[in-house]
Design brief:
single chain; 145 residues; mainly alpha
């Protein structure tokens, strides 16, 4: 299951937050390499968690707290890549679970196919994010997971 660039951009806050329309993976890559706005990472966290404390924990898992607070407007390209990876997993989970409680429940519940880690924990690495996307693809196709 490949999540399209527009769906990932929507999770990152869309044109209002990103300051540009994302129509392709080339557009998304350019935005990531230029440094995503801090607000994009906040937007991803707001989709997953309604409460501020859990949102902050998610944000600081992507960008260390001191670094995040030091950033004025934009994340570094490396931080942006981690934020994009998280947004990609959230966008893929949205396709399967929609918004709301089921989405947050899936992303925050330990999964046996991830060695008991949550999908959010697994998505801290690129390989882990791909594993989460494979689980979501199997769910989307009605396969056992």
């Amino acid at each position: 299951m490949t999540t399209d660039a527009a769906a990932i951009a929507e999770v990152l806050g869309g044109p209002e937050v990103l300051g540009r329309e994302i129509r392709s993976f080339a557009d998304l890559e350019r935005a990531v390499m230029a440094g995503l706005p801090k607000a994009a990472l906040r937007h991803v966290a707001e989709i997953v968690f309604p409460d501020a404390r859990r949102r902050r924990r998610l944000i600081y898992a992507v960008v260390p707290e001191a670094s995040y607070k030091r950033r004025r407007q934009c994340l570094t390209p490396a931080e942006s890549a981690r934020a994009e990876r998280l947004a990609r997993v959230v966008a893929a989970a949205r396709r399967v679970w929609g918004d709301g409680g089921d989405l947050a429940n899936f992303l925050t519940t330990p999964h046996p196919m991830l060695e008991g880690r949550t999908p959010l924990e697994a998505a801290r690495s690129e390989i882990g994010a791909r594993r989460v996307e494979q689980i979501l693809a199997a769910l989307e196709w009605g396969l056992p997971v």
